[in-house]
Amino acid sequence: MALTNLNRTFIVAELSANHAQKKEIAVESIKAAKNAGADAIKLQTYKPNTMTLECDNQYFQITEGLWKGQNLYQLYKEAYTPWEWHEDLFNTAREEGLICFSTPFDRTAVDFLEQFNPPAYKIASFELVDIPLIRYTASKNRTMIMSTGMAKFHEIEEAVDACREVGNNDIFLLKCTSSYPAPLSELNLATIPDLKKQFNVEVGLSDHTKGIIAPIVAAALGARIIEKHFIMNKEIGGPDAAFSLDEKEFAEMVDAVRKTESVYGKVTYELTEKVKLNRIFSRSLFIVEDVKAGEVFTEENIKSIRPNYGVEPKFISDIIGKKAKKDITKGTPFTWDLI
After folding, report:
1. Which of 239, 264, 289 is the last residue of a domain?
2. Contact 184, 190 (CB under 8 A)
3. Cβ(6)–Cβ(124) below 8 Å
4. What is the pLDDT along the chain (339 residues), one digit of tens a residue?
């Protein structure tokens, strides 16, 4: 299934670390995401030692932000989704009618995920500079969804080129602000349509803000994918809970995005049937004083008023000065046969 063929905004529930290392919570979270209106569930596929080095020196300590004071290896050990869960999670998603795919963080993860025939791969913002990984992942000829949260313009360009070099042009670029949680003032969502223009790809949003304003704005700007971290219940806790939506919040986001899509609609200058009916209340020319046969039409006896049963107001200058063919009573729509 090519995600570029979807006819509405594709809403992805990012499970990430929101399972407290309990498979039953991961399974129930997939079901909850379906209930909340998600189109897809996304996993993260890595092991702590494929992400970083088990080392305690200063290079591997987190000194700022939400995870300040933690060691990288220990953080990823707490957050990762065990690989032996994947088969059950993919199967659960399919049983629920959800698309399931994942973010691979190295080649071994790509090779592992291939057995599940995912429709897409997601490249995380921090891996967008890993051109060999992108090239290898894109070579599998699946939709490539790439977050741009940590990338400069030329790095986005290099990542897109890497996909195209292996013949894969099925690409989404997601505007992303890699701050956890991300402040609304730093999102710059105006970049979404510009990404589409600059790189000739489909676009979307990977959102790390609190709340649902950003996805609504993104949908209005033409985002074709919206990815938001999902947690079944915030009491589960975990590294990503602070910027995740629970089931109720996620459902509210889905509803708001769907309404935004409805409002956004398509480019058209055709009138809807309801508008056509209401055109009867627009303006036209009416006789506003009794007029005798042979009397001259003037600005006093013919005017532009509501409703719309007479000749269009733009013709009034062609009518003023002409004579009435017959007696006309006040309140009669003006028609050309009255001259």
Report:
1. 264
2. no
3. no
4. 456 556 789 999 999 899 989 999 999 999 999 999 999 999 999 998 888 888 888 888 877 766 677 788 888 887 899 999 999 999 999 999 999 999 999 999 999 999 999 999 999 999 999 999 999 999 999 999 999 988 999 999 999 999 999 999 999 999 998 778 889 999 999 999 999 999 999 999 999 999 999 999 999 999 999 999 999 998 888 878 888 999 999 999 999 999 999 998 888 999 989 999 999 999 999 999 999 999 999 999 999 999 999 999 999 999 999 999 999 999 999 999 999
**Does 160 fall in a domain?**
yes
Report d(CA 331, CA 195) in Å as an integer: 57
Domain-ending residue, one of 209, 239, 264: 264
**Run of H or E including 213:** helix 213-220
Neighbouring CB atoms inside 10 A of 130's CB total: 17
DSSP 3-state assignment of 172?
Answer: strand
Q: How many structural domains compose the chain?
A: 2
Instruction: Looking at the structure, tell me whether residues 178 and 103 fall in a common domain.
Output: yes
Q: Could you tell me how far CA 64 lies from the centroid of its own chain?
A: 30
Cβ–Cβ < 8 Å for 306, 313: no
Residues 6+ apart with CB under 8 A from 200: none
Q: Rounded to two decimals, what is the model's pTM?
A: 0.85
Write the CA distances from 108 to 85, 136, 137, 179, 211, integer angstroms. 16, 11, 10, 27, 35
Task: State whether 19 and 71 are in the same domain.
Answer: yes
| Domain of 160, in residue numbers | 7-264
Q: Do both 62 and 159 map to the same domain?
A: yes
